[in-house]
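Quick one: structure tokens for this chain, please?
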Amino acid sequence: MKNLEDIWAIRFKQYLRELFKYLRFVFATSYIAIIIVLGFAVSYYGKWLQVVTQDFPAEWIVSTICGALLSFSRPTTLIREPDQVYFLQLESRMGAYFRKAILWTYWSQIISVLVIYCAAIPLLLTVENPSLWKISLGFSAIIILKYVNVRIEFSNHWKYQGDHHFINRLLRIVLSIMTLKLAIEGQFLGFIIFIAILQLFEYHLRKKVMLEPIPFEYFSKIERARMTRFYRLVNYFTDVPFLRENISRRAWLGFVTRLIRYDQKNTSLYLMIRTFLRTDESIYLWARLTIVSAFVAAFVTTPFVVWLLVSALSFATIYQLKHMFISTRNIRMNTFYPVPASNHHTALQKLLRGLLVLQACIVLLSSFFQSPSFLCFILIIFVGEMTIRFTKQNKTINN
């Protein structure tokens, strides 16, 4: 039998192959949008640094953002459901396997925090003008805090299997923020004290874990949930054939379907609206993109950037929703209703136009935080209507 380090290496290669297989579709379809957004963000950030005031709480904001991200350290174990049977006799030798898992969790998650901290250094230099020692101490704090947080979260999952998880994370968020704040201020003694507190907490929890059996079933469950979140993200850019849709009744939205007049020609419209309201993937997609558009209209002060972003988000909303309904990935029972195909196409266009108008109204209301932007309303309607009319449509629609 292969040793456990070899098993981890094999699974890790399979995991990376799966990640890159889908991520290349994400970047291939959206790299232009990513470049544009990053360009505008960097330009806006540079201009903002020129006008930021000296009393801006830069240290607290950087510490809070980085400290909160450091505390989110869900482990990547690559444990599978059959392992609760096949690995049971190897429990005493699983240490080597989990050390590999902890190291991958650490390196895969710390990069984003370091990028944010490095991006925040110009802000710190503009407002606080810290010395190289203080910046280096903050960098070191992130490296140490991430490792301790990964170990604590791994032990907490092992010991309590999801219980007390909120309290544990909240406590670590507070301690991580305070530790990073002291590091950026250059208070070395306070920094060492808080690191020691976190390390003692991790040691105490690790000692408790040594007395507990390995929760293979729980680890496989959180691993499935983690990969499902990844597949749902990727599914916005390309089809993931084996991904199952989550269905929720949402009785509080039942009034929407009751507004549809009882008539045979409205059969497809009724079924599509009900499908949209009860399918998590579709309704959350629309809600997320609408919220982002509303946020842009409310708080971004450069008109051209606002027009560009709300237009892009309008296109993304309609294109992805239309793709969901015309995709042949799933066969739904309501496709067998004796309704002409033209009825399906008309109903889909009515649904998309209704969602488009609702999104445009929400964005228009959000723009009142600055000044009413009726041009945003017009752009959303225009771009969405062009998307409905001219994007590819399959011959059959699964509603």
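The two ends are 49 Å apart (CA to CA).
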